[in-house]
Design brief:
Length: 441
């Protein structure tokens, strides 16, 4: 009986000990489940999902519910998909009132734009900084009216009156073309270059100068480009003899120069530059005429002549005996005329004719490119017109429209004609006559 009681007590003690060890664990798991918290499972406890058995004939495969994969689009394809071609034509416009004064009130509705006689819709009209290239002729040793000092003063007056922020470049040309100053907005720097680097040369090659000028506009903003050309437009080789000069002024050489000039003008037109010309041609003809009339006068009648002033001619030339002069005995020169070289006279006539032809070419060039030509008859007038050109450049608008006939479908060499008609009474406009498609792409 005592043994049995001891066994029962031992079993009860073991049972109580087991319950006391297991109960806290069970209580903790129950409380976690009731609070909704999750226990963290270690990577080793993650079970691998059971693979789906391969379908057999006795177990037909269900149709797939997974949607097809979308094609992958690369960055390059995305760029191609959003690329939009926009075409615009920018044309410089000069606006004046009936008194030839700049019109600052121009608006888009004031303009009717025709491209190849088809009306276009103007998208914008504004004033932007200009790119102005000074193309200065410094040759012309046969031209008595052309002086490098006058050309320099013309350019300096233009620079002094150009608008702040406009870009300037300077080139001089004679037998070869030189870049004196690349594009800059520093007007003081340009003036310094004109005073220190502009120099006289020999001969003249206008076609080459225009071609080189056209290439300088690469990289400059389109729509407000200008060339200011100061020259007489006559081409001559350096140091020509009589025959070379005659051939250049009116012979076969002049024909070749004309063809080269046409190609150079085509390039300048493609560069979309407005051309302003200050020409020596009128002043040159006036100077040649005055020189010829002077040479025809009797020696005694020329202003400043010793005979006409009543001063004795005896002994004026110390290399001759007293009482003698270059014409013989004293008084032999009275009423005599100068012996005029017939070759020199023919050269002067040929040069005068050449200035008439070049003036026509320069006028056509300026009008085709939307600019003007100035034909002063004195050096002071020429200098003053440098400032006038600067003010005209400052008064230009840039108009933009999207052509109704797409540019991308046209040959790059195609030329399209432009007309702009004012819709407001008293308004006057001047624009270029057209453009090359390649320049607008």
């Amino acid at each position: 009986m005592t043994h049995h009681t001891s066994s029962v007590r031992l079993f009860s003690f073991v049972t109580a000990l087991t319950v006391s060890l297991i109960a806290p664990t069970l209580l903790m798991r129950v409380s976690l489940a009731q609070s909704g918290r999750r226990t963290t499972t270690s990577p080793s406890e993650i079970q691998t999902p059971t693979p789906t058995p391969t379908p057999t004939q006795s177990q037909p495969q269900a149709p797939s519910q997974v949607p097809p994969r979308a094609p992958v689009t690369t960055n390059r394809e995305a760029q191609d998909e959003i690329k939009v071609y926009t075409e615009e034509v920018r044309i410089p416009v000069f606006a004046y009132d009936e008194y030839e004064r700049f019109d600052p009130t121009l608006e888009m509705r004031d303009l009717l734009v025709l491209e190849d006689d088809v009306a276009q819709e103007v998208k914008s009209l504004r004033r932007v900084p200009a790119s102005v290239l000074l193309l200065l002729g410094t040759g012309g040793e046969m031209n008595l009216a052309m002086r490098t000092s006058t050309t320099r003063d013309i350019a300096l007056n233009l620079v002094a009156n150009i608008r702040a922020g406009d870009q300037l470049a300077v080139m001089q040309f004679a037998n070869r073309t030189e870049l004196l100053q690349d594009w800059t907005a520093d007007r003081e720097q340009v003036a310094h270059v004109l005073r220190s680097k502009l120099s006289s040369g020999r001969g003249s090659r206008l076609a080459e100068a225009i071609s080189r000028a056209a290439s300088r506009f690469e990289g400059q903003p389109a729509g407000h480009r200008h060339v200011v050309l100061v020259t007489d437009g006559v081409d001559l080789p350096p140091r020509p003899d009589y025959r070379e000069a005659i051939n250049a002024l009116g012979g076969p050489e002049a024909t070749r120069d004309k063809a080269a000039l046409a190609e150079a003008v085509r390039r300048l037109n493609a560069a979309q530059a407005t051309v302003h010309v200050i020409s020596y041609t009128a002043l040159t003809r006036q100077t040649l005429t005055a020189r010829e009339q002077r040479d025809k006068q009797p020696v005694a009648d020329r202003p400043g002549n010793a005979t006409s002033s009543g001063i004795a001619t005896i002994g004026i030339d110390p290399t001759l005996p007293p009482g003698m002069s270059r014409g013989g005995a004293a008084g032999r020169m009275a009423g005599a005329k100068i012996t005029f070289d017939p070759e020199m006279r023919r050269l002067r006539k040929a040069y005068e004719s050449a200035t008439l032809r070049s003036e026509q070419q320069l006028t056509s060039l300026a009008e085709e490119m939307g600019g003007r030509i100035w034909l002063p008859t004195s050096a002071s007038e020429m200098v003053a017109q440098g400032g006038e050109v600067a003010r005209e450049i400052g008064s230009q608008y840039v108009m933009m429209y999207a052509p109704r006939r797409p540019l991308i479908t046209s040959p790059t060499t195609e030329y399209r004609r432009i007309r702009i008609i004012p819709r407001r009474s008293g308004l006057r406009l001047r624009v270029r006559r057209g453009y090359v498609v390649a320049a607008m792409r």
